[in-house]
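Components:
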Amino acid sequence: MQPPDPLEEWESPPFEPTVRGGLVYARGAADNKGNHFAALKAAEHWFRAGRPPVNLRYLIEGEEEISGVSLPRYIRANAERLATDYVLVWDGGFASDGVPSLTSALRGIVYTEIHATGAGTDLHSGGFGGAAPNPLNTLARILGELKDRDGHITVPGFYDGVIPPTEEEKAGWPRGPEYEATVKKIMQSDVFEGEAEYELAERLGARPTLDVNGFLGGFTEEGSKTVIARQAMAKVSMRLVPGQDPARIFDTFAEYVSELSTPGVKVEVRDLGSAPPVVCGIDHPAARAAADAFEKAFNKRAQPRRMGGSIPVAIDFQEALGAPMVISGLGQPGSGAHSPHECFSLDHFHRGIEMLVHFMDGLRTG
Amino acid sequence: MQPPDPLEEWESPPFEPTVRGGLVYARGAADNKGNHFAALKAAEHWFRAGRPPVNLRYLIEGEEEISGVSLPRYIRANAERLATDYVLVWDGGFASDGVPSLTSALRGIVYTEIHATGAGTDLHSGGFGGAAPNPLNTLARILGELKDRDGHITVPGFYDGVIPPTEEEKAGWPRGPEYEATVKKIMQSDVFEGEAEYELAERLGARPTLDVNGFLGGFTEEGSKTVIARQAMAKVSMRLVPGQDPARIFDTFAEYVSELSTPGVKVEVRDLGSAPPVVCGIDHPAARAAADAFEKAFNKRAQPRRMGGSIPVAIDFQEALGAPMVISGLGQPGSGAHSPHECFSLDHFHRGIEMLVHFMDGLRTG
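Structure:
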């Protein structure tokens, strides 16, 4: 779970769940306690009625937001004991209002930190400007050159091997003015950026990305200081899609970044962590059971999609257990995971219990 | 005077002057108490011998480093009372070891702050990367595009009107391996950056510059956070040379920066302050008297130069009093003004008193 900051932006205390307009507001309500609790209630239903139609094993962990290693280690160490027919990764939510979603693939990630160093000491921009290497100018130039104006990433070979979604896969994807309006509302932006030749859902889930997540250098207090700082840093992450290998991407990226430097500025690229992209598909019995169960509970066919985020543990399930995987969840669009407006729909919660009851039954017959 | 931070880098306490190897180490020793004290001792010499050969008026202020307005206001309000034949701005020092310098011009400055804003809220880079406007990527791109790889500034019309130094002016400028080695040693860098077609002294004093002095945005703590931040900022200053007007440069710069933005990122450029470039020349009686006095005390002809820094009050002296101006000082190269190694040469101090005694005499006969 993420910390509740900034506290002053919460309308009600983050750890006192409060219902407003059919939504429970609380840190962790959507990401991920609402999902978990519905899953427990669905099991409870079956136990009260006798026993569940299939064997169930729940793995609930609290380390995801700090890149915890316990669950992956546990899964890999106990693969034999955990052997199963299907895995449900119950994380995520609806991409459009009222329409459940089923994830066919997750993006991977490479997260890097770049350190640029110029002279051996901070310098006065009056005395040395014009000849002193400026690591801030250079680092900005490097970051600016990593994408062109149309959002294409310039790292050599970056797109090599990318497996695009099939036309069949794309057919069911959310699109149209309503979907775009929903995304704009969540983003609080009137404009989308990036590769105009790809539709929105593809850009958000099936195209690799490159984003600067942070940068810091020199004098950043109020007012002016005429300093040429000796060092600067930036954090840059790339989302990867099926067909891209994190290790290869990191190496190419690090080499390219160094090449983009200017005389007198040394550049060091650090690897802060990575996760490979995951393909789980939605054309297997468990996915079909989930789609049927969603339809019964929400009166809507589930929308297939590729999810833009990463769920690092998914690759551990896939590699250690080898069972078909369903990745889905109950959060409504705009549930505000990680934000001071996090909330979870009570309607989704109740229908979600129903969906899970049907799902368990479907797995027996499927 | 600048604050003494970082304290831990001082070998002796910054406010307990300590002599090591013929140098007095203390905050403010070189910038500017050494100069001031030598000037007082020179006056004392003349008063002990009877009276100074010319009338003297000392204006010593402590606001320069905080862009104080008191001295400029005082000068302009009392121009008539302050009427004088010559002005000595006793700030600065030697450009090369053992060789005094006389400043023919000072660079001006325009100091700006750029704020870039994307979406209305911080976003998750997994869920929105690929379509969310990223103000960090955009601001980096803007900063990177302000100069080309050879150090030429790309702001339209930026160099219009620049008055280059004459061949005669450049003839006496410091150059050669020894001078370059001195500058490299002070900079603690083996490489010079910038316009290779101009010699070092010209780049450091007579060419306009553009430097990013600071930037900040997004997540900058330890580790990784996959955020697309909603805003970022940078501080950018430009040093101007004779022929460039700060107001015109600011307007063109602000417009150009806005044009360089990408869809969805709003850019605001603020003016944090400016000072026009100043030309004082070294071909007037006071400058010649200073050169003669330096030669007598240091056994070296003073090197003419243009100074890369700005002394904002110089323009007030020039405009309010209209008297020929001498800009020079006693600090040795590497005196470390503003740094935790600030020191002032005792040899320069003693010879400096002698120089000033001669200078006062020279003003009488000159």
